[in-house]
DNA sequence: GGACGCTCTTGAAACCTTTCATCCCAGGAG
DNA sequence: CTCCTGGGATGAAAGGTTTCAAGAGCGTCC
């Protein structure tokens, strides 16, 4: 008798796992509307092939059941995602959010959505996001990379996830890239300062692993060389990141130098640094531009509204994003897509921070 | 004979659709490693239960095949996503990116990733993102809503997607919210201006569908009432968005008024407006703060670095984001979670833009 | 009146992973 | 020598959608 009892028990214990709260699927909708699974799917994906009457029934059923299409299942079966991601260096930098705006514009025109991710200049986070996005099988990835030699980045395209590099020009032939000529930008900035008669010029930027920082510095050096000046005229102040706070720190260091060794002008790798530098220097009693002329980079909206309107190197931000997204869309839809390397030209915008100096 | 031929044809033509390029799945890995599907899955999800030797074999196979786990399939079966989303009003506003930073901090601590979405103050985009995220079955949604009465928003929690409203306090009991007392903030700003002796004060903000804009205005009105002033003293300049460009537009309008009717002070619904207003007024010849005192809102990093350092109402931005994310995590992990309504207190930061006026 | 064409609908198969009840096997206890 | 135990490995089933070959219903044409 004990044995019999034991066998009688496992009656209906075959429940495997508590599912999410009452999720109605296509099956439930089909049943409620009195049609087949396939028809519900057609209403969802090809509404034009189903008769108006049937469609109405199905739509009513969906509404009353609160049906929400399960994207995981859709994507698993259909194999394609309707999402595109932009991994940016720093969401706090208006330059990148402007680029993102351009990306969204182009994506929306193509009916895709954009997920923004921010690596915060941290290699591990960048890597983690790349893995995540690849696993999500997104349509494609736009990225302003920290580590441009990342093997992870290089492998993505061959495994089926198109990548477009934004604001960097990689020599790698495995993806498109859209960039602005940063070397030229650096040259523009320094040539401008040299023309104004400055002799000791600081280059404020870092860390030196970031491509943009390196290129702009190289441009600065080239301008000096072209002008026949010694390299020693360029005083490098390396920062830990491209932020306002780091700019303030650089300002502190710079203002602390004895007047006869202090540079009379500073070229910053981006506007955030320039704004921080400006703020700190002013508060420590240096006059801008009389004691220190400042040139920024990016020409973000706040550059013009700064304490002293900032001379800056302008980049076509939104255009950069839009172009990148368009290249990505082409790559994932056009079978004979060819990788391109688009380079825009920066432009110097002169404002008070360097006006009438010396 | 023709009949026999016809039957013989469909030999191996059953290919349905060209799949994505050579995607190696668990099955292929299992075969390559000489183990079963289940074992591969265990290596992925419970590495401790598989013997070191087997694990090594499987990991080698994964590496050599370039295996990338298919997140759609994982999520479909496992039922849970490791992603959390923050839908912000405007990625170009540093206030929101600072909030986002707080969100990421908390999410990372919990091992989750964050997708950022921006509604750009557009109701349709907000709706589209909410739909998308719900279909993606994300762990939860953090949102600074445009339309707080959106039925879409209200329905989400009951269907299984937890929602936390950020920077708004909804009366709705279906989700947590984290906010800063905007009415108080408005009061602080206006009281400050009244104390300085200003009589004609402008309120610059809009559109009037945005909760923050309304609350801050209500606070302004309340301060007037408390001071026994007529409401007519508050001149409302409505803007189309909370951006620098709109701020400039408001400046244009304001500077165009005859001097005897022009306000002597302006309170802006956020710092972007204030910066635009400041910039335009200065360029049109008004002195700040002598001719026009300005108070902003948010105390973003750029407020202090502005042409005239901006008096502003400070909010605990990162804390806001972190708290919101923590509430969300609690909601989705703690079975007896109770909805909360956290309210922080804003703080007035006085700077030159209102200093020593009148 | 039979064949054909057309529009709409159907339902089984496939997508890739995770889960869990079983099974296998070696070693220890009786 | 058998029985048990427990660490590991197994593989069928399940999860919700899309796809597509095939079927149903109905009007038209010769």
UniProtKB/TrEMBL annotation, chains A, B:
This is LacI family transcriptional regulator. Residues 1-23 are annotated as: Disordered. InterPro entries: HTH_LacI (IPR000843), LacI/GalR-like_sensor (IPR046335), Lambda_DNA-bd_dom_sf (IPR010982), Peripla_BP_I (IPR028082). It comes from Kribbella pratensis. Gene3D superfamilies: 3.40.50.2300, lambda repressor-like DNA-binding domains. Keywords: DNA-binding, Transcription, Transcription regulation. Residues 24-78 form the HTH lacI-type domain.
């Amino acid at each position: 008798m004990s044995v019999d009892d034991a066998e009688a028990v496992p009656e209906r214990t075959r429940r495997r796992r508590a599912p999410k709260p009452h999720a109605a699927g296509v099956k439930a909708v089909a049943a409620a509307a009195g049609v087949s699974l396939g028809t519900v799917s057609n209403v969802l994906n090809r509404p034009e092939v189903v008769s108006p009457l049937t469609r109405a029934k199905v739509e009513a059923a969906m509404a009353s059941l609160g049906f929400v299409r399960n994207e995981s299942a859709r994507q698993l079966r259909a194999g394609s995602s309707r999402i595109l991601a932009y991994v940016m260096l720093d969401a706090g930098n208006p330059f990148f959010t402007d680029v993102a705006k351009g990306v969204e514009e182009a994506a929306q025109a193509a009916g895709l959505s954009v997920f923004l991710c921010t690596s915060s200049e941290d290699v591990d986070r960048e890597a983690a996001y790349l893995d995540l996005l690849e696993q999500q099988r997104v349509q494609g990835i736009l990225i302003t990379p920290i580590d441009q030699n990342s093997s992870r980045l290089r492998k993505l395209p061959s495994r089926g996830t198109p990548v477009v590099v934004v604001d960097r020009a990689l020599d790698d032939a495995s993806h498109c890239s859209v960039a602005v000529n940063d070397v030229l930008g650096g040259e523009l900035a320094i040539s401008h300062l040299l023309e104004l008669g400055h002799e000791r010029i600081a280059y404020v930027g870092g860390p030196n692993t970031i491509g943009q920082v390196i290129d702009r510095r190289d441009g600065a050096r080239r301008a000096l060389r072209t002008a026949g000046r010694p390299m020693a005229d360029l005083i490098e102040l390396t920062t830990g990141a491209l932020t306002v706070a780091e700019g303030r720190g650089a300002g502190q260091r710079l203002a602390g130098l004895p007047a006869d060794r202090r540079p009379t002008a500073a070229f910053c790798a981006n506007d955030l640094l320039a704004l921080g530098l400006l703020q700190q220097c002013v508060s420590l009693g240096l006059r801008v531009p009389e004691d220190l002329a400042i040139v920024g980079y990016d020409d973000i909206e706040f550059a013009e509204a700064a304490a002293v309107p900032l001379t800056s190197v302008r980049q076509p931000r939104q255009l950069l994003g839009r172009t990148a997204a368009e290249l990505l869309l082409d790559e994932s839809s056009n079978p004979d897509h060819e990788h391109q390397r688009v380079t825009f030209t920066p432009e110097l915008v002169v404002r008070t921070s360097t006006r009438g100096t010396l």
